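assembly run, all chains below
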Amino acid sequence: MFVLSRDGLPLMPCHPARARALLARGRAAVARHTPFTIRLKDRRRADAEVSGVELRIDPGSRGTGLALTETRSRMSPDGEAVTVRRGLVAIELRHRGPQIHQAMVRRAGYRRRRRSAGLRYRPPRFTNRVRRPGWLAPSRCAYCGASGVPLNIDHIRARARGGTDRPANLLLACVPCNQAKAARPVEDFLAHRPGRLAAVLDRLRPSLGDSAAMNATRARLILGLEGTGLPVRSWPASLTSANRTSAGLAKSHTLDALCVGPLGLGEGGAIVRRATSVYVFAATGRGSYARTTPDRYGFPRLLRPRQKRHQGFASGDLVRATVRKGRWAGVRTGRVSVRSTGRHSVATPLGRFNAAHENLLLLQRADGFTYSWRGESECGE
Ligand SMILES: [Zn+2]
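ok done. output:
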């Protein structure tokens, strides 16, 4: 449980049982519902001791691992002081990049269909592209070796199977080969020609997209962290994975984060505690600018109203619903999707139901994230 001081600054996180006791005695108040955070009424940051606590970050392109750790000194069996690390809180932050990418691919699909279906469309612009003088077209099919025939651009890993347009995924194929292969996996298509298959697969190198994204954002991340005014240190990712292997931990962003920074494994240092469950903070965005929802063909299905708030609720808000009768009778907590009629839809882990706005109580405003839990990966490989 996260704890804030009376003046709203972070203190040492505490056990849920301790938080319950503090709330029951009136020494604390609930500051935030999810993730659960209390604020102490009788302690200022200056009076509390928060030492040896560090936030360790393992940034990735799709997700980031965060580990809040405490460094403690303790006596080893042979009477020497060693520093050990305790993991207090583990958080997995899921980024929104893949979701945005997927939405843009979907939009491109809608637009492409408008062109091919003879509807209102954006005129093609390839007529204004010029080839340099003396350019010769490559002239051999990569699958059967035919030359002097019209060639198509073939996706080694088909677009229908998630293949991309990056050059390493493209080659030239004659029309019959291109059509015969269609969306089949290349391993299947060239199963009877292992030599040719090996040559094609050799072209298909793993994408560098994820590491390129990290290289581009790392400096920016450090700059942003330094803006908080707290001391910031960076540490090479290769040493992190070495630390993790020596500590016998499985691979996950949160366990990597726990292993960031010098552990002093040679001098008796160790990780003596790790969080058994992980907070999952998934970025969901704050709704969409588009005021229409498309159907499966990309045509407008319904018009969304201009305003996002209805009867004081906006989609994504965390609410407590009191349902008087029926299948969902009881008090339930979930995320609301607003309807202009005032009967909003509430999504709970058990399912979705409708409830009138009079029966809803706002617990927390939507902040662009959903919060859940998962168990931490097991030790060792
Ligand atoms: Zn061919």
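The longest strand covers residues 81-94.

Residues 141, 143-144, 146, 173-174, 177 surround zinc ion (CB under 6 Å).

not gonna interpret more than that til we talk
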